[in-house]
Amino acid sequence: MLTSRIFLTEECLNIKRLLDDTLRHAYGSAKSEEFYKECRARLNSLSAQVDVIDETNLPEIHTLAIQIHILSDKITKIERSHIGELSWPFALVIKEMALEVCRESVAAANEEDPLFFFSANGGMFVYAVSPERAAALSRRRIFNVVFPRSFKYQVLLHTILGHEIGHVAYAYHELKHELETKVTSVLLHGSPFTSTSDFKDWLDKTYKLNLSDPALNDAFARWRQEYFCDLFGLLIMGPSFLPAYRSLFHLLDHTGSRYSATHPPIMSRYSMLQDALTFLSWEKWEGVDHQNLRQPLNSMYEPMRQHVSSIPAPMRILDSQQVEAATTALRDILKRMGNTLYVHPKPDELNEIVSALLSGTPAICTKLKVTRSKLKKRYVVNDPIDFRHILFAGWLTIYHDARDREELSLFKINRLCDRSILHQDAINTWTEHFEKEPVPKNVSN
Amino acid sequence: MSVISSTRVLDLIQQGKMYLSPILCMEQIGAISVDLRLGNMALLVRGSGTSHVDPRVYANHDAHGTSRTQRQKFDQHEFMFREQFLLHPGSLALVPTLEWIKLPTNVKGVVTARSCWAREGLNIATANFINPGYNGIITLELSNLGQIPIALFAGMRIAQIAFHDVTPDALGEFAASQFQMSFEPRAGNIAKHDRSFIPFQSGNRKRRKSKRP
To answer: What is the ipTM of this complex?
Structure first.
């Protein structure tokens, strides 16, 4: 007789075949062995449980079936995470950043570093990171980063993933607790999102909405996290987070007032981001005199400013002083996490990158320097460029008045930025693994 | 038309009149040439994709058919740094250079194999002129003339480019290359401007008519 237990035993064997089949592909961003071993360990654990389960214990069999289903789904997604479907230089920098965010919590939870795989999906609004909660089965968590397939080279829009990395941070209990108490609670203090009863009243007053208690609690937790993740995305990705955010969300909801069970209305989020932007002084950016930068800076921020100025008072939910306090607190936390906190480049450096992009070349421009000795020997210098500065420059190029003259389409600018990130990866690989160019002592430009 | 010494090439780069980047070390610069590195992609001819190269496919107005044939002709592989890519004997691969290049309108480039690789059987095919004013990656047509596969890694120096003066400037009077501002290798159009000699459409129509009762 084909019992449920025998069926699951057979399915475990099917998944074993599926897992072996994944070895045919160069999937994930390298390190396929680690994915294989992790999934194999999970499968072995599930198979062992299926072998000894009581045929009559239907609830437990159901639980195992769900876990086997989830594992099968994950292996299939990993198998499909084909490197050719996404911009892998960008994927690498995102993975590094997410690992920096996790690292402290991983150590605290006595876990190994999580595994990240990148997959493409259909649709424009599918950016996501699916964080895995710690499970008894797993030795390592596996996070799936999802890009829109059609945006393979639209790296300027990919800055939206800064928001999603915020969800990764929330997946770790230790870090979540600190972020909740030091950032989210401060950010939302005095707002309707302080308690579920205040939230319930606000929903009723604003939307004439009366949710059941489970739905209310769920929306309360999710909305709070969304505000936090917006601020997180801004602080780790820098100014280029804003135009990407606005480009996508304006298409998703041009009124800005719609809400869902998982996401608060966009207008209230715009308002919060504008407050943070003002506090960070990124709009004014004292000392930037280059017309090459000033004009596109103004043009880039203007649509957001106009948008926010039209937001009605009821949608300006968060207090600007609370936004400032939360921004300060989050910056302090991010400073602990390697290079995750975005820091502005020097205006001259940014100006050089914008000029390079405007002339239709990538941002990485090898410099030649000359020794001051009599021999006047030349040597090369490749100053490292943070990928976020490349993206910032990319957005400024899009908003630059000279772009049309240079016939630079959005596609070309995105691809030049993508190429720049690739070049930086080449320089990093060279520096990390190969003999370094000896630097003469007496050097002039 | 004279070969430009690397001293002048470096001057042009330093003055911002030529773009060639990234240059990772001075060992890349020879007396009259600059070494080029393998980029991170390869288009490999798919044996099952097409039966033969046929100019009629390129001259066809049928966008779907042309595009499908061109796309199915090659398998596209992307590989990261320090990942291996094998080139088998007799196979052809279109690969990009790692470097991006932007030439002034009075300089042309000539790409050849590096002799150390040529001695291992790696051939960099003959379409090696880079037009004045070109801006983009350079596509290399690699083939393995030896008897055993060759392992290649992105970032390795496999080709070299020499530069020549062009007088007077070559901008404006002539059509820009069909590959201007390439980001990755792709097949060219072998039938472009030669449609007069490709008798594909009328032949098809005549055959169809003759089948009618």
So the answer is: 0.86
